[in-house]
Amino acid sequence: xxxxxxxxxxxxxxxxxxxxxxxxxxGWLNIFAASKTEDNHQILDFSTKYGKQILWIGxxxxxIIVILFFNxxxxxxxxxxxxxxxxxxxxxLFPLGKEIxxxxxxxxxxxMSLQPSEFVKAFTTLxxxxxxxxxxxxxxxxxxxxxxxxxxxxxxxxxTLQPDAGSALIYLSFFFVLNREGLTxxxxxxxxxxxxxxxxxxxxxxxxxxxxxFIIISIASTYLIYKGxxxxxxxxxxKVLGIYVIVGLFIFGTGFTYKNVFKQxxxxxxxxxxxxxxxxxNIGYNSHQSELTISSGGFWGKGYLKGNITQGxxxxxxxxxxxxSTVGEEWGxxxxxxxxxxxxxxxxxxxxxxxTHSNKFGRIYGYGLASILFFHVIVNIGMVIGLLPTVGIPxxxxxxxxxxxxxxxxxxxxxxxxxxxxxxxx
Amino acid sequence: MQRSFxxxxxxxxxxxxxxxxxxxxxIIKGETYDPIHNAAVKIEYDYPERGYVxxxxxxxxxxxxxxxxxxxxxxxxxxxxxxEFCNLLKIDKKYFLKEFKRxxxxxxxxxxxxxxxxxxxxxxxxxxxxxxxxGFYIQKRIIRDYPIKxxxxxxxxxxxxxxxxxxKSDYYQSGELEGKEGVExxxxxxxxxRKGKKYLHRNRFNKVTGSYKNGINxxxxxxxxxxxxxxxxxxxxxxxxxxxxKRGGIVAIEPSTGEILALVTAPSYDPNMLVGRKRxxxxxxxxxxxxxxKPTYDRGLMGAYPPGSPFKMMNALIGLQEGVIxxxxxxxxxxxxxxxxxxxxxxKCHCDIYNSPIRLKTAIAxxxxxxFSGTYKKIVEKNNKPSEGxxxxxxxxxxxxxxxYLGYDLPAxxxxxxxxxxxxxxxxxxxxxASTNIxxxxxxxxxxxxxxxLANFTAAIANRGYFYTxxxxxxxxxxxxxxxxxxxxxxxxxxxxxxxxxxxxxxEVFKTGTGKYSQVKGIEICGKTGTAENSIKMVDxxxxxxxxxxxxxxxxPKDNPKIxxxxxxxxxxxxxxxxxxxxxxxxEKYINRTVSKRNKYREQAMLNMSLQEVYDLQIPKxxxxxxxxx
Lengths: 426, 630
Description:
The structure holds 2 protein chains of 2 kinds.
Chain A: H1 2-6, H2 14-35, H3 49-69, H4 72-96, E1 98-100, E2 103-109, E3 112-114, H5 116-133, H6 142-161, H7 165-169, H8 174-180, H9 186-204, H10 206-261, H11 264-273, H12 285-296, H13 308-311, H14 323-356, H15 360-384, H16 402-420
Antiparallel strand pairs in A: 1-2, 2-3
Helix pairs in contact in A: 2-3, 2-14, 3-16, 4-5, 5-6, 5-15, 5-16, 8-15, 9-10, 12-14, 14-15, 15-16
Chain B: H1 5-28, H2 30-33, E1 41-46, E2 53-54, E3 60-72, H3 82-89, H4 93-106, E4 112-118, H5 120-129, E5 136-145, H6 152-155, E6 158-160, H7 163-168, E7 177-179, H8 182-186, H9 188-192, E8 196-202, E9 208-211, E10 227-229, H10 233-242, E11 248-254, E12 259-266, H11 279-286, H12 299-302, H13 311-322, E13 336-338, E14 346-348, H14 360-366, H15 369-380, H16 386-398, H17 421-427, H18 451-462, E15 466-467, E16 473-476, E17 479-480, H19 484-487, E18 490-491, H20 499-511, E19 526-532, E20 537-539, E21 542-544, E22 549-556, E23 563-569, H21 579-592, H22 600-608, H23 612-617, H24 621-628
């Protein structure tokens, strides 16, 4: 204990630190490439995007020291309070927030803005870890499951109201954590089925889907009746009927929702992604441009600061959500696959370390961290390479923005702190 | 430990999918995206001069003039004062909105034509004002100019590439011009040249920031090549004048080369009608399907008709070749030919030689139906099986280029039709013989030919047994064409010696037969007149049997023939009244370069001759009103 007090870096997992520094550093190089203008190359000019990012990166070091300074116990004890404070910050946004791009997601402090939702992720993870690691807590009880759901989805609900559906979507990643701690996989399967049905319905149209699914279900149940005989049918006929009704209603409901509840720009996003609509200019422009930009990099890339699409400012939001396309153009397939691999390594390492924790709190927190990272990476890179619809969330450690960088720094380094202490009996 | 497996697995799966997708984007697709299809590179085109077109004597037929289009790239357009802009371009707001929407629908990140072909005087004025309207600019283009108002059907025209093609093509951009018909279409690649390209860097404000990769991809424009046609424009123009007021087609070929000297369709139109801003308005009128004149329909290439009497020469040649007749063998005619026992199985004949021997020369000169029916019967029934005999007949006929596309270098017309044994085997339930299709003997029946095929057939006779595929281009950039299809002799299946008697007989036609009033002193013309039956039409509830279409084939002079032609006049009646004088005038004009004084009356008569009344009779009243309101 004494030794630990003397040196806050003792027991730290340097592999994670190294991955962190690599991603942040490489991220900045790309932000510089994406946001530099022809007449200004001064790196420390804080009026520029890349200059500001230097500042954010610089400030994250004292932040890290502070995080590492606190004892692991502190995070466990104060998890609820931190969570409540962060929820309050989300609520305060409604009267005090500053509206940018139609969403009240920002607090404005003079020259600088903060986006609370980026920080809430970390504190929600703490709260979930605290709840699930409680010795009294039995996750089999539905009552307890509901408690966990409330902790996870209350901030997501508040963020949706801002409205910032993209950031709220990230909270779905907590399913992995809950699943790891005993929540049945059926929820995820159910979710996946619903999403698949939804997409297929949009793609093929409601009536086609109802007909073809009814045929599939009929064949399946005929097979089961054939195998199980009359007994099967006697005991299960209400289930079979139930499946027919639910699937039918769902598809019908999807068709209806899609046509009447969704706004045109939502529909457009889906349709462009599913290839039902080709529009390389208007709504499809971003994804089209970013795909093109990435493709043009080829295997080796065009070289740092030599990407003509990046330098010509053709990709909107390239320094934030579309930063990965800069990597694609200037660093080529080598660069992009390296970034993907770096993220994979970081996530593997976090899960691996989390599983070695004897303490449940640390393990759950680590799992939460890995899941959040995983979701961010899927949604962001998936969007930039044209596999997923346009959802505006940043690429962790990489994208421009202080809130995002600090939010992820806090998330990661709390885990590193917890991990450094895992062998002490506390 | 088992439960963490899910996340491990998903991370790996997603990682593999992402890297796979990146591989697809950056390595498989990567090459095709760069550098051209790339928003950061702007391509500026430098349009080359389109090739000129000359006639065989070096007279300029098609030249170029400049034209200016207003282009728009919708994604760059900033809010503007529409009213002022519309006034400037002399358009109304409806047009503005319509065209702007169309351009956006096409692709808002690509330029498309907003207003076509400005008047020259507007251009200078607009050039100065245009910079105010971002997203709009003026594009210089080269359009055609026709100093001589003739041969529109041969020359064709250029028009905007259609949008589907422009999107697929790796050369054409929307709004660019390409050859649409005639020589312009057929020789597009040669006339067009290659436009030059300059690759420039630009930023998203469309500001050019320098040349791309120091211009290593840039190309210079390559001018189009000039064409010299085989056409004799004086002859063409003269033929068009003679055909005024008539409908039909004339094809004239130089037998010794297969060069097309004239290709006339009447009525035609001034090629300048399809140039410039009036183009779209005029093309609607010209291409109207309800227009009975069909000025854009090339009757010389497209009209497939029964050839009528000129086809008798074909049967004579085959008969001689097959040895079923000789110069001396004869048939008797009894006012017609009875091919069956029933009362209506009788083909009338107008040779007026009753029950005395008719030999080949007389038979052609007097156009005796009985003689050729007898000959045809012998050809078809030479073998025991008529279908074999007919196949043999078909082999001879098609060796003259009949019954198939000739392979000329103009947009393909019609194939025509020459039946074979199988055709009748399939059509007839029971056995058949020559009597079943005896009409083929005199060129009626199932046989169909186009005027250019007939002209080529005549050229093959003039050459005594061979022809060169008719073609319209003589030189490309002063280099004479050497396409084997046009320079290699095509031999027919008829031996040379069998042509002499047939040619003698054709000479007789102009000496004593139906063409005797159309002789030209000093030129020995050989020819054959004919008619294609005109079916009865119902017009406004009244049966109308308009005069037959008249057909004439001829070549001259008899030895060393210089010109072979086929003339087809709709409702022209017997060949001797219209087709023969026109033929003789054309031959005289081409060979002597002028029409002698003594034949001026003939020229005048033909220029004044109009069949308009006959044509008008065939238009139902209801349609007349409809076309009147246009």
